[in-house]
Design brief:
Blueprint lengths: L23 E3 L11 E3 L2 H4 L14 H12 L2 H22 L3 E7 L2 E6 L9 H14 L5 E3 L5 E4 L7 H19 L15
Antiparallel strand pairs: 1-2, 3-4, 4-6, 5-6
Helix pairs in contact: 3-5, 4-5
Length: about 200
C-alpha cells in the first residue's frame, strides 16, 4: 500500500521512471485495502493454463469500484499536486530544522530522514521514535521506517487536501521542535515501540 495505486501521482509507481515491467502483480493497493488482486502480463504467459486466473481475490465487483473512484474523483491528479506541495513544505521545514537530514519521495509517498546527534546522546532511531510518538499525541499518525528506523513515513490518503497537508506539516514541525528542545517527558515514549 505504501506505493500502491495512485500514491506517487500516477496509477503505478513504476510509471514515474520509464520502466515497463514484464509482469505486474497487484495486491491490496488495487482495492484500497479491500480483498482483490491481479496479475497483468502478456497473453502468451497469462493464457498458459485454463484455470491460471481463477483465484480467491479476483473479480470482486465492490473492490473494482475503487478504480472508478480514483478516476471519478481525480485522485491521481490530487496525489501529484498535493504531494508536490507537501514535499515543498517539508523541504522548507528541513531548511529551518537541523534535525532533518533529508526529505525524499514522490507524490504522496514521502519520507523525512532524521539525523544522529540532533539531540545530544540520542540516536536518529530514538529521535524518530520520539517524534512519531509526539506527532501521535498532537493528532497525527505517521510511521517510522527505513534500515535504521530514522525515516518518518508520510503516506496520507489520496484524497488529502492542501489544507490537511499543511496542517500535517505544522504538526510534524511542532513534534520535532518539542522533541529536540526537550519540552516533553519521554517516560511514556519508552513503552512505545512503534506501530
Amino acid at each position: 500500500m505504501k506505493v500502491g495505486i495512485g500514491r506517487t501521482g500516477v496509477l503505478h509507481a513504476f510509471q514515474n521512471f520509464g520502466i515497463e515491467p514484464d509482469v505486474l502483480v497487484l495486491g491490496k493497493g488495487l482495492g484500497g485495502g479491500l480483498p482483490i488482486s491481479a496479475v497483468i502480463g502478456p497473453e502468451w504467459l497469462m493464457n498458459d493454463r485454463a484455470a491460471f486466473s481463477f483465484q480467491t481475490l479476483h473479480g470482486n465487483p465492490v473492490c473494482a469500484a475503487v478504480l472508478r473512484t480514483i478516476e471519478r474523483e481525480r485522485l491521481l491528479s490530487n496525489s501529484s499536486k498535493v504531494g508536490y506541495c507537501l514535499k515543498e513544505l517539508l523541504n522548507e521545514l528541513a531548511v529551518r530544522q537541523p534535525a532533518i537530514a533529508e526529505v525524499r519521495g514522490i507524490g504522496l509517498a514521502l519520507g523525512i530522514g532524521l539525523r544522529d546527534e540532533a539531540l545530544p546522546g540520542v540516536t536518529a532511531r530514538e529521535l524518530t521514535a520520539r517524534v512519531v510518538y509526539r506527532a501521535f499525541q498532537l493528532g497525527l499518525v505517521v510511521y517510522y521506517v527505513g534500515v535504521n528506523s530514522n525515516v518518518i513515513e508520510i503516506t496520507p490518503p489520496l484524497n488529502i487536501s492542501h489544507e490537511e497537508a499543511m496542517r500535517g506539516v505544522e504538526i510534524i514541525e511542532r513534534a520535532i521542535e518539542d522533541v529536540v528542545s526537550s519540552k516533553m517527558d519521554f517516560g511514556e515514549c519508552q513503552k512505545f515501540a512503534g506501530w
